[in-house]
Amino acid sequence: MAxxxxxIMSRGEVLELVRSQLAEILEIxxxxxxxxxxxxxxxxxxxLALIELVEALEEELSDRLPGFRIDDEDLEDLRTVRDxxxxxxxxxxxx
Length: 95
Prior knowledge:
By secondary structure, the protein is mainly α. It has a single domain, classed as Non-ribosomal Peptide Synthetase Peptidyl Carrier Protein, Chain A, CATH 1.10.1200. The chain has helices at residues 11-26, 47-62, 72-75, 81-94. The two termini are 23 Å apart.
């Protein structure tokens, strides 16, 4: 078990949140989504699906982290599940 750093969510929890939201949005099994999955190449996620993911994450995390947002200009840098998890984890840790 990883040591808690006092963060609102662990990186593992962020990964599971991203995977579960993606599975729901893309209507695929969560087992098809790995941390190294590319949104476009592996998951066939288009920009609309990514916007839905951002909205779902913002809604889910705003309860724990008031004012949590993923900036539109940062969205283009999120190409894989790992990118999204790293981005959200960094924001959570900085809070």
